[in-house]
């Protein structure tokens, strides 16, 4: 008789990739570099580019910033406002 397979149940916990949005979205036109760097995926270089790209009339204007494409824009959308 062949050995029977032994199944093991494995459970994993996955932590959310990004923190939940702040109660009040960050203003792209007024936020400090430090505030911008708290956004998911935004480091010092992108934060500086965002500041240099001001003013923003709508969130979609972030697409003008080098290094921010459609996927990054959608990730940031809940966290920011013009």
Characteristics:
single chain, DNA polymerase, domain 1, elongated
What does this structure look like?
With 82 residues, this protein is mainly α. It has a domain of 45 residues: Orthogonal Bundle (DNA polymerase, domain 1), CATH 1.10.150. Helices cover 26% and strands 5% of the residues. A two-stranded parallel sheet has the order 1-2. It is elongated, with a radius of gyration of 20 Å. The N and C termini lie far apart (70 Å). The model has no long low-confidence stretch (mean pLDDT 88).
**Average pLDDT for all residues:** 88
Report the radius of gyration as a whole number of Å. Answer: 20 Å
Write down the overall geometry: elongated
Note poorly predicted spans.
none
Q: Please trace the helix and strand order, writing H or E for each element.
A: EHHHE
Q: Give the second-level CATH assignment, the architecture of the domain at 37-81.
A: Orthogonal Bundle
Q: How many E-type strands?
A: 2
- Characterize the biggest β-sheet: 2 strands, parallel
For this structure, what is the CATH class of the domain at 37-81?
Answer: Mainly Alpha
Give the strand line-up of the largest sheet. Answer: 1-2
Euclidean distance between termini CA atoms: 70 Å
User: How many helices does DSSP assign?
Assistant: 3
Strand content: under 5%
> Any idea what the CATH superfamily of the domain at 37-81 is called?
Photosystem II 12 kDa extrinsic protein
- Helix vs. strand class: mainly alpha
DSSP helix fraction: 25-40%
Kindly report the CATH topology of the domain at 37-81.
DNA polymerase, domain 1
